[in-house]
Amino acid sequence: MIALAAAALFAGLAAARARRDAAEPPGNAPGRGAEAGGESTQIQIGGATITVSIAAGRTDLPAPQLYAWVRRAARAVNAYYVTFPVARARVNVRPTPGRDGVFNGFTFCPDSGLLTTRIAVGEHTTEAELADDWMMTHELVHMAFPSMQDQHHWIEEGMATYVEPIGRAQDGQVSAASVWKWMVEGLPQGEPEPGDRGLDNTHTWGRTYWGGALFCLMADVGIRRETRNRAGLQDALRGIVAAGGTMDHDWSIERALATGDKATGTKVLQDLYAKMKDSPAPVDLGQLWKELGVEHTGGHVTFRDDAPLAAIRKAITEPVKAKVAPAKP
């Protein structure tokens, strides 16, 4: 999961600008030659219908395994939001010859209004690579937040970066230890560097993805502390979706954060944004890991359940036990 490679994320940052474009970007997959054309199916999950299309092209894996990969990602999103955020969506899978792995994922809203994820899969991708993939889930999470102005792109990418591994953990696809290992190893890249002018004004790769994810972690811990662990960022984000804040709608960041705060009965999101939007606001991550009871040694993570915020750490990755309706702000 730590393999959020800089090159891939820089490509994702550029591609994300296309999410608000009305026209769908052109495809680039070659034909199958003597083989038949593309295939498609529909996945039903969380009250949603997701149409999955595989473009013409060769893959070592049969179509059902590619469909299962998309379904796993949709399950992770459904686990976190306790529903799928939109009623209808589309996923276009583009086979790419001579490669393996998953790459070039991006999500956008075309003229049709049907939120669409386009993603490339190498011809020689293995089932193990699909099982370890984070990008498909990351892209589907984007559907669960309103489109922002460019200076607030960090909240779109940071939210998807933060929610993706937690949703996968809540669905049982990865362990809680792997989520916290990812955080300990990755989040320092989101800390401000010299000359930083806050999240709204510092549009580097690290501050956009990891800085946005750091904002989300601090918000999650802050909401849980203030509510005595009765609510977290998950409730705030579910409240935003319940109020209609999905990617096919343009919102201001102020509206989104106020809506999330109303769902949790706090002002944590708005207060944290005021602190981090125009100033560096570094975080003492070492102290935070100590309070959460997260110990990282030799590339492995262990937990201390006697830490003061251990209950919060556990709650962040635990699945929602009761499928309650999201709060409507």
Which helices and strands, and how do they pair?
Blueprint lengths: L5 H11 L22 E7 L2 E7 L8 H19 L6 E9 L5 E7 L7 E7 L4 H6 L2 H7 L11 H18 L5 H11 L18 H22 L6 H10 L10 H12 L3 H9 L8 H8 L1 E4 L2 E4 L6 H8 L12
Parallel strand pairs: 2-3, 3-5
Antiparallel strand pairs: 1-2, 4-5, 6-7
Helix pairs in contact: 2-4, 2-5, 4-5, 5-7, 7-10, 8-9, 9-10
Could you characterize the architecture of this molecule?
- With 329 residues, this protein is of the alpha/beta class.
- It folds into two domains: 6-144, Elastase, domain 1 (Roll), CATH 3.10.170; 150-317, no CATH class.
- The protein has twelve helices and seven strands.
- The protein has helices at 6-16, 63-81, 127-132, 135-141, 153-170, 176-186, 205-226, 233-242, 253-264, 268-276, 285-292, 310-317, and strands spanning 39-45, 48-54, 88-96, 102-108, 116-122, 294-297, 300-303.
- The strands form two sheets. The protein has a five-stranded mixed β-sheet with strand order 1-2-3-5-4. Strands 6-7 form a two-stranded antiparallel ribbon.
- The chain starts with 5 loop residues before the first helix and ends in a 12-residue tail after the last helix.
